[in-house]
Amino acid sequence: MPRPRRHPEAVVRYGFMQEERGAPRVRRNASIQASAICLCALYAAVTFTVMARATLRGSSFEQLEPYQTTDSFLRVLDAPHPGLLVENSLRRYAPDQRLLFVGPAGEPSTLRVYYTISHLAYPRPVAAIFCGEPGKSRTSAVERVPRTAEIGGLIFFETDPGPWAAGGTRVTSRLSISPYKGADPWESFCR
Amino acid sequence: MGIFLSLVALSIAFVGGLGVVLLLRSHESKPDICGVCGTALVLGAGLVSLSSFCLGFLIQGVPLRCGVTAICLGAAGYAWKRRNWALPAFPGLRRFTAPQAIVIALVAAQMGFVTWLALYRESLGWDGLFNWESKARVAFLNGGAIPLQYYTSNYDFFHRSYPPLVPLLEAWIYGFLGRMDQSTIKLIGPYFYLAVTLLLLSVANRTRQWRWSGIFVLLPFLLVPALAMGQGSASSGYVDFPLSAIYVCGVVHCAEYWRTRSMESARLLGLSAALLPFTKADGIVPLLCLAVAIAPLVVRERNWKLGAWAILPGFGVWLGWSAFLSSVGVQREADFAGFTPAIFLSHVDRAGPLLVWTLEELTALRRWSLLWPLAAAALFYLIRDREKWRWYPWTATVCLPLLLYPCVFFFSAWDPVEAHVKISLPRLFVHVASAAALMVGVVLVEAMTPGERSRSAR
After folding, report:
1. Are A123 and A146 members of one domain?
2. pTM for this structure?
3. pLDDT at A6 over 70
4. Is the ipTM value over 0.90, yes or no?
5. Under an 8 A CB cutoff, do A122 and B138 touch?
6. How large is the average pLDDT for residues B154-175?
7. CB pairs A-B closer than 8 Å
8. How many domains in chain A?
9. Are residues A103 and A179 in the same domain?
10. With left for phi above 0 and alpha for psi between -120 and 50, is residue B356 left, alpha or beta?
11. Is residue A99 part of a domain?
């Protein structure tokens, strides 16, 4: 059913809004509408400014990568596709083998690299020893496996593997993984 | 190909959700395509995760994937059969107007932007990888299900007690891909963003006959920076935005129940609320707020059936999840010292700093733009309205969480507590932001159409 048309003079236009002339509180309603539109415009202006600044500031991924986040967390390893590289290197260890991560306590990225490698190593449990430097940082450990348990492999980050380098894999210039069998004190791997 | 297969996985979840929604809707109710699809997206994600979790203890791998697919398609097929194989008619779609075209363009542009941010701009982030994707990884490597051993072993994982709705949805996508892919699972954020958009549009369609209402209801949501980018947003790998989407689904059906008193809304509210504690441990707060929002109707009208439908499923899932964690011996996280009066009294001196940090957060323009000042103005508008009780559900669902979330830090075990607040509070407010944006939108439309006020207020 067609809607009855109002007399043109009985209508006051406000942008795309319209009000009946002579209706109570018309002026007040018009001011509320004007305020609402102004608020929307201000809201949009603030948001566009904030989002444009944030969008222009950061960098983008060039393509979709299965290891997008782990690669960005392991960027310090200075190698292409470090996530896949680490995962492939860990494949030689059986799922029930325990691993020990050895890294410097004073290096800011150590904790992030440890957690990321631990994530990629699942289902192998990875414990950690963060080696301190006298007067600079303290040695600490993440005991995801008991200290007395037998370790099946050592992961050295920013640490010289020394005698344990034999038979191991140099994943990148900053990371190497070596097979090992024993339960020596974890601190003994700090060099 | 990865994107296509991910979309297939999410589409099956949507079809399952559609089946659930159509089964719970009455035959007489007016069809609303936005509301039906928005709710279906939310409930579909829940259906996939809950069925993966439950079936996962019995079957894994291809049988599990087939079983969950059968549940999703079976629900939709049964719902369709109950309607005598008739497709629901959506009369609103026949007329295509200029405001509708603008809304579609706005939504398409924003969805494109959020999807681009999710895929090419933002990584999963710290929590997204270690708290959530790691569970998806465990599930994928164990045939799509999180094994019981994951909870019972002493292997020290990140936050084992966190509920698995989003990780199991991620594992569901991995199952279709046949491999793990940290970029394509980011589509889950835009999936929930679309759900919120459709739910907001459904509110616009229901409350007003004004043809521009869709734009004004949607605008406050689309303009919140923290919902599109940054930690906890739809483009991050965090579960805060999915929780926000589930909460807004509950709020929409709660508001609909207040307006129409239809049991259909109560049922959909109950199912949405049930997913909250299965998404994140913090989900108990929005669940409580929804219970508070609906409580006066249960008590005043002695409508116990409403209480059973709207409140019990949520608390049932929360109790079930807590009982499960206790039975497998998983301890709750050590972030909180315990929710006891003694702990509260010992930390009562945090009240002043918490108030300051909360106000600082609510006025942080780079995260929220003008959302919270506008929400305060909208609430003031509703309270001074002469219609009794109309302000109440909005106060319970928007203001109460804003009050409860900062209060949680009275029980924080972090020292200093400021670090805990600064890390967590912005993300906790993401849970409420979509509902707050909806409230602002509804009030904006009312302010713009005063002549229709009395009609929509009922």
Report:
1. yes
2. 0.91
3. no
4. no
5. yes
6. 86
7. 111
8. 2
9. yes
10. alpha
11. yes
